[in-house]
Every structure is written in structure tokens, then in C-alpha cells.
Write a structure and sequence with these properties.
Layout lengths: L1 E4 L5 H12 L19 E8 L2 E10 L14 E9 L8 H15 L4 E6 L3 H9 L3 E12 L18 E6 L4 H7 L2 E11 L1
Parallel strand pairs: 4-5
Antiparallel strand pairs: 1-2, 2-3, 3-4, 5-8, 6-7, 6-8
This protein binds coenzyme A.
């Protein structure tokens, strides 16, 4: 297994690896058809096995504090994408991608990492095992059909919302969890590297 920098002709393999890795997670419907690009400098690595992309990590890097990360107290890097193909999970690939990225971050004088993930316990376990600590969280609320009644209203005639994705950062989390069927905790993790 080789870890190297992402190249433009990796895009299809990158997309497939990402979508399959999300299949049985709380991000199952977060599907990209084009790879994300970043405004700031980035570290974009892939893990390759027999010519196939089996893992990926994308980190956007700060040149000035608080331009990308919200919870880092010094120059930080934000993990925007991290995925290992399901057939290759639990073999240390995610950890190796992180370690290689951290080496490159240190060379850029970046000493903190920030990441957000939903409430898949095994993914949270991976972050904690790799030295991350949770610093805060808020809720991702996905409202469908009747759940929108009395909550979301269109100001345009004949436009009837049937789905809504919302962030909730208030105190009444239990009320939100009771009211809506699909609610995820989105947890923010930070690590000193
Ligand atoms: C989280 C992820 C990147 C970890 O990469 P990995 O190469 O599988 O993990 P590693 O081999 O480095 O570490 C293994 C640890 O990860 C966790 N883990 C990884 N895959 C797992 C699985 N299929 N089931 C349960 N735990 C798993 C466990 O904590 C495991 O430690 P353990 O074996 O001591 O229990 C990868 O599993 C993944 O792609 N998950 C789905 C996508 C995702 O949620 N990405 C992050 C979104 S922000």
C-alpha cells in the first residue's frame, strides 16, 4: 500500500472510495460527484493498493489563525475528507494517512488539527484513539414531509418544502431529538500534533 499525493486523474477512484466508505455511516447520503477543492493551501493524500484508491485524506491549512478552523488556538488544519474503502478498513490505513499528513503539516508550522464527524461511535473511537479530543458539538437536523409543518414555510406561492437540513446549536437538544426522526450530533474534534 502506497501513500502519495492526490493527482487529478485520481478523481473517479477518490469519489468511489469516499461514497463507499460513507455507505454505512451517518453520512450515507453525503454524495459528491466532483472532488472538493479548497481556497487555502491543502494536503491531499491517497492510499493506493494495486492501482486502486482505498483511502484518502484532505486537510485545508491555515496561513493565518481562524481563517479555516474555528476551534484551533494556533495555526490549524481542517480535515474536510477522510475515508477508507470498506474492504480495507481496520488495517491501519486511516492512521497511516493521518501520520503522513501530520508530518507534512509540521513542515508547514501547523500544530493543530480540527475535524467534524457525526455520531457513528466507531468513527468517534478512531478519532479518540488517534489523539483527538471532542471540544464541542451541535445538531444536524434532517426534516422530512410532515415534520416541516409549523416549522418551515415557503414565502412563494405553490412552493411546498418537503425536506430541510438544519443546524441546531441551542440548549433544548432533547426536544429537537424527540421532535424529529433524523437528528445527528455533529462533533468537533481537535488535536495537538
Ligand atoms: C474512520 C476511518 C477513516 C478509519 O480508517 P481505518 O483505516 O479503517 O482505521 P484504522 O485501521 O486506522 O484504525 C482502526 C480503528 O478504527 C475504528 N474502525 C475502523 N473501521 C472500523 C469498522 N469497520 N468497525 C469498527 N471500528 C472500526 C476502530 O476504532 C479501530 O480500532 P480497533 O481495531 O482497535 O477497534 C474509516 O473507517 C472510514 O472510512 N470510516 C467511514 C468514513 C468516515 O466516517 N469518515 C470520517 C467522516 S468525518
Amino acid at each position: 500500500m502506497l501513500i502519495r499525493e492526490y493527482q487529478t486523474d485520481d478523481e473517479e477512484g477518490w469519489l468511489r472510495c469516499r461514497v463507499l466508505s460513507f455507505l454505512h455511516t451517518a453520512y450515507y447520503d453525503n454524495v459528491l460527484q466532483e472532488k472538493e477543492t479548497y481556497d487555502h493551501p491543502s494536503i491531499e493524500l491517497v492510499a493506493v493498493e494495486d492501482g486502486k484508491i482505498v483511502g484518502l485524506i484532505d486537510i485545508e491549512c491555515e496561513k493565518a489563525s481562524k481563517t479555516v478552523c474555528t476551534e484551533c488556538s494556533s495555526l490549524g488544519g481542517m480535515i474536510w475528507n477522510l475515508a477508507v474503502h470498506p474492504d480495507f478498513q481496520r488495517l491501519g490505513i486511516g492512521q497511516q494517512l493521518l501520520h503522513e499528513a501530520e508530518k507534512r503539516l509540521k513542515a508547514r508550522n501547523i500544530d493543530q488539527l480540527e475535524a467534524y464527524t457525526r455520531d457513528d461511535e466507531w468513527v468517534n473511537h478512531w478519532y479518540r484513539k488517534n489523539g483527538f479530543h471532542q471540544v464541542n458539538h451541535y445538531l444536524h437536523v434532517i426534516m422530512e414531509n410532515n415534520e416541516l409543518n409549523g416549522v418551515i414555510k415557503s414565502s412563494l406561492k405553490k412552493v411546498r418544502p418537503i425536506s430541510c437540513f438544519a443546524h441546531y446549536a441551542g440548549e433544548e437538544e432533547e426536544m429537537i431529538k424527540d421532535k424529529f426522526n433524523r437528528v445527528h450530533e455533529c462533533r468537533c474534534y481537535r488535536k495537538n500534533i
